[in-house]
Specification:
Layout (H helix, E strand, L loop, with lengths): L2 H19 L3 E10 L2 E9 L6 H18 L6 E6 L10 H6 L4 E10 L2 E11 L3 E6 L2 E6 L3 E6 L4
Parallel strand pairs: 2-3
Antiparallel strand pairs: 1-2, 4-5, 4-8, 5-6, 6-7
Helix pairs in contact: 1-2
């Protein structure tokens, strides 16, 4: 496992009882570098959506737990938030909850001279993701997908 994966896994393990105690679920945890700064981001969710109080309570408890464990030697900024309306679908559990919903999909390399597609998430497995785009079924290799997220409908 990479350093990033170790940090994310350990932070998620610390976050699990905190999330349960606060009535939220963990959507994702990521440790990223942006410019010269590191960020540990915890995305939380619940059925009716999270609010600022949920984020504040989880952030305070997680910060205390991270300070106690002190396993990340780098200076970093902790952020706790909702995954947002146009949430990225990184894990199988995200895809499962999004079946039948409108998604946007971006590829690393063009397919049919396009890199971006949108449609209803129809199915997925370990190798492929299938969307319905204007009554046309399109299947993409997961390895070719750079990003898939919920579509924002205004």
């Amino acid at each position: 496992m990479s350093k990033r994966e170790v940090y994310e896994t350990r932070a998620e393990a610390l976050l699990l009882p905190i999330a349960e105690a606060n009535g939220v679920e963990i959507y994702d945890v990521e440790y990223v570098r942006e410019g010269s700064q590191y960020y540990l981001r915890a995305y939380i969710d619940k059925k009716d959506g999270v609010n600022i109080t949920d984020c504040e309570n989880v952030s305070r408890a997680l910060s205390d737990a991270l300070d106690k464990e002190d396993f990340i030697p780098d200076a970093y900024i902790l952020e706790v938030s909702s995954p947002g309306l146009g949430r990225t679908l990184k894990k199988d559990k995200h895809l499962q909850k999004s079946l039948g919903m409108e998604v946007e999909l971006k590829l690393f390399k063009p397919m049919d001279k396009r890199k971006e597609f949108s449609g209803v998430l129809d199915s997925f497995d370990t190798e492929n993701i299938t969307i319905m785009e204007e009554n046309i079924s399109r299947t993409f290799k997961r390895a070719d997908v750079a990003l898939i997220r919920l579509a924002l409908d205004f």
